[in-house]
Design goal:
Strand content: 5-15%
Number of strands: 7
CATH architecture: 3-Layer(aba) Sandwich
CATH class: Alpha Beta
Strand order of the largest sheet: 1-2-3-7-6
Largest sheet: 5 strands, parallel
Number of helices: 9
Shape: globular
Radius of gyration: 18 Å
Order of helices and strands: HHEHHEHEEEHHEHEH
Mean pLDDT: 96
Distance between the termini: 38 Å
Number of domains: 1
CATH topology: Rossmann fold
CATH superfamily: Thiamin diphosphate (ThDP)-binding fold, Pyr/PP domains
Low-confidence stretches: none
Length: 282
């Protein structure tokens, strides 16, 4: 049967309003999960929330009732430590009950600290060790090209993650094979564990690097839902090369004491911080 973006209204304004509401719900849910579990990576969850909401409620085609549908678009969460946001969007999209989010990181829970495709529907591949998601996505995109299937493959990477050389081997293969139905999204919050990316192992000029590997590159505000839907939803047919979207984001976006604060790469709020964040996330 034909697939469509789940729960997406037809009109642009209504769709953006839905995506905005979903992104807010992702942040609230992810922070609750981290608070209750005493573990997690909320800064990266928050920088990626608008990207995930735009993909799942404004761009991708999938059927949560048939999660392995052969014509589905594929999404890989390469920055696999940000499971608070990822599990939240999967639950909102209908892949499993939202009530299950309350088991996050509990013993024997299906909601591990890193996503596992053997545990939950909607997860294409296990991720967590950084630098693995893009190589897998390239393989999936090659398979689609060889079989003539028109599904699209999206992969979300962290910017610090791009210091892993495996990403650039995969990028070289993708550019060489002109995988126009592959889209790499870089969550460019400029912070990684412990410090800024440019102080650790500089990435700039990041756009020129991707172009040199044969990608078309768009740089956008990663919190602008209209821009995300416009760029990610554009028909790739005839582009002749893969797409890299450098989404400029803010780590901890939406909560004043978390924004652009490296200590929230991995951080657990106390009860007062949690209460303050819930007041701000409205």
């Amino acid at each position: 049967m034909p697939l469509s973006t789940a729960s997406a209204p037809a009109s642009g304004a209504d769709r953006i309003a839905l995506v905005r509401a979903r992104a807010l719900a992702i942040r609230r849910s992810a922070f609750t999960m981290v608070h209750d579990a005493g573990l997690g990576h909320p800064g990266g969850d928050f920088s990626a929330a608008d990207i995930l909401a735009s993909l799942y409620f404004g761009v991708m085609r999938y059927d949560p009732g048939e999660p392995r549908h052969p014509d589905r678009d594929r999404f890989i969460m390469s920055k696999g430590h940000c499971t608070g946001a990822f599990y939240s969007v999967l639950a909102q999209a209908g892949f499993f009950p939202e009530a299950q989010l309350g088991t996050y990181m509990q013993p024997l829970s299906m909601l591990n600290g890193h996503p596992n495709r053997n545990y939950l529907p909607g997860i294409e591949t296990n991720t967590g060790p950084l630098g693995h998601g893009l190589p897998v996505a390239v393989g999936i995109a090659i398979a689609g090209k060889l079989t003539g299937n028109d599904y699209r493959t999206f992969v979300l990477t962290g910017d610090g993650e791009l210091q892993e050389g495996s990403n650039w081997e995969a990028a070289m293969a993708a550019g060489h094979r002109k995988l126009e139905r592959l889209t790499v999204i870089v969550d460019r919050n400029r912070l990684q564990q412990g410090d800024r990316t440019e102080a650790t192992n500089g990435l700039d000029p990041l756009d020129d690097k991707w172009r040199a590997f044969g990608f078309h590159v768009d740089m956008i505000d990663g919190h602008d839902h209209a821009a995300l839907i416009d760029v990610l939803g554009a028909d790739p047919s005839g582009r002749g090369k893969p797409l890299c979207v450098i989404a400029n984001t803010i780590k901890g976006k939406g909560v004043s004491f978390m924004e652009d604060n490296v200590s929230w790469h991995h951080g657990v709020p106390n009860d007062d911080q949690f209460a303050q964040a819930m007041k701000e996330l409205i």
